[in-house]
Design a protein that fits this description.
Chain A: One of its GO terms (molecular function) is phenylacetyl-CoA 1,2-epoxidase activity. The structure holds 2 protein chains of 2 kinds. Chain A is mainly α. Chain A has helices at residues 3-26, 35-62, 68-73, 84-87, 93-114, 120-148, 152-170, 179-184, 191-208, 230-239, 241-245. In chain B, α1 (2-15) crosses α2. In chain B, 40% of the residues are buried. The chains are: A mainly alpha, B alpha/beta. Chain A binds chain B through residues 36-37, 39-40, 42-44, 46-51, 53-54, 121, 124-125, 127-132, 134-135, 138-139, and chain B through 51-55, 82-83, 85-87, 114, 116, 119, 135-140, 142, 145-146, 160, 162-163.
């Protein structure tokens, strides 16, 4: 595989993760359990979709990609490369919170590695996004710790959410066929290295919260190859409903 | 000398462009302008958003174009500078003072990295007390966090420190 094909594959999966989790986060707007959480999930949604847009722009400018709006809204489900974790419905609040905790630490590990990337547009973007992500992980860590110490029912629900999310989160690091080349070209260190980095940042928080860390026995793969849960198509239908009424409209 | 005068005029025009979300601060005071160049085509201005997903970026770009074209009677070309990232040290001291008077706690100066303490700490812009706590790292705009003052009991927003 050539680097001209390998790089877009990496970029698409990262951006699709951000677009889809951004949409899921936005579903909490108006429904947050307290006002601050309503604002937090809405703000994080805005950040994630902004990050996705920035990467779609890189694809457009450097790899003759489509217009970011068209690319975000007009593809078939099988053309999306997001992992299953981000596709899942928002569920109960603890599920969304745990997903946010696991995803944002993974994203932080990813952008930290990109700040050393030999691909300049990604390296420049990493500098910007890294600082913003601190607020996301600060938010996630604070609530995980707080809710795990808020009584037995609360702790049990958080443990349940961790157990429900953990194998799905393993899917963030699904190995890709483009990886060896990207590693040798110093684009990024590869999924296995990011997975190890992720484990080392989430473990202390999980331990401090008094949760039991599950074993990664069956990470949920397939998303990076375009195989998705039924939930993605439903989400895409809703997400693109207005856009598809008139794809040529300018806003 | 002509060029120097004209550059000054561009900066004067830029100082008239206020941030739509914090109307007491200009794009210059916020440190959003990274380069100004004048050639035969017109004025070329490079700018950067504070937060990458800032929804106001297109409005600000338009406001800059309009202000420069109106005040200088020259075409203006505003582009986003990808080589420079905004960080909160770019806020001028006068901007921080204006923020405080506007009721928003300014970000503390950082040394390249923002640590956890810095995210959590903000002095109350109303009574000046340090006895405050972070209520939520997200506020009414991407660049703001919510804090509460234990001294005067007021909730207030902080312009987030960003490295």
């Amino acid at each position: 595989m050539q680097i001209q094909q390998a790089l877009p594959e990496l970029l698409i999966k990262i951006a699709d993760d951000e677009l889809i989790i951004g949409h899921r986060n936005s579903e909490w707007t108006g429904l947050g359990p307290v006002m601050e959480e309503d604002i937090a999930f809405s703000s994080m949604a805005q950040d994630k979709i902004g990050h996705a847009w920035a990467i779609y722009r890189i694809l457009q400018e450097h790899f003759e990609g489509q217009d970011p709006d068209q690319f975000a809204f007009m593809r078939d489900a099988a053309a999306y490369k997001c992992c299953h974790l981000v596709e899942m419905p928002i569920g109960a609040y603890e599920f969304s919170l745990m997903r946010h905790f696991l995803f944002d630490h993974a994203e932080t590990a990813r952008y930290q590695s990109f700040s050393q990337s030999s691909f300049t547009p990604l390296q420049q973007l990493a500098g910007k996004i890294k600082g913003e992500l601190k607020y996301h992980t600060l938010h996630a860590d604070a609530w995980i710790l707080q809710l795990c110490k808020a009584g037995e029912e609360s702790r049990q629900r958080m443990q349940g959410a961790l157990d429900d999310c953990f194998q799905l989160a393993g899917g963030i690091f699904e190995p890709g066929k483009e990886e060896a080349l990207l590693i040798s070209e110093n684009i990024y260190p590869g999924e296995q290295a990011l997975y190890q980095q992720w484990l080392s940042t989430i473990s202390p928080v999980i331990e401090k919260a008094g949760l039991i860390m599950p074993q990664m026995t069956a990470p949920v793969y397939g998303g990076r190859q375009g195989q998705h849960t039924q939930y993605l198509q439903q989400l895409l239908n809703e997400m693109g409903e207005v856009f598809r009424l008139d794809p040529e409209a300018t806003w | 000398m002509q060029t120097i005068t004209t550059l000054q005029a561009v900066y004067n025009a830029l100082d008239h462009v206020k941030d739509p979300e914090i109307p007491v601060l200009s794009v210059l005071e916020l440190g959003m302008i990274t380069d100004v160049r004048i050639d035969l085509e017109g004025v070329h201005i490079k700018m950067i958003p504070t937060f990458s997903a800032c929804p106001a970026i297109n409005v600000i770009k338009e406001n800059i174009t309009n202000a420069v074209e109106r005040e200088l009677q020259m075409p203006a070309f505003v582009t986003v500078d990808k080589e420079v990232n905004w960080n909160s040290n770019r806020l001028t001291e006068s901007a921080k003072e204006k923020l405080r008077n506007y009721g928003i706690a300014p970000p503390a100066r950082h040394e390249g990295e923002v640590n956890l303490d810095m995210l959590i700490k903000a002095d109350c812009p109303h009574c000046g007390s340090e006895n405050t706590y972070l209520r939520s790292p997200f506020g009414s705009a991407l660049c703001r966090a919510l804090h509460v003052c234990r001294q005067c009991g007021m909730m207030f927003e902080q312009f987030k420190p960003l490295s």
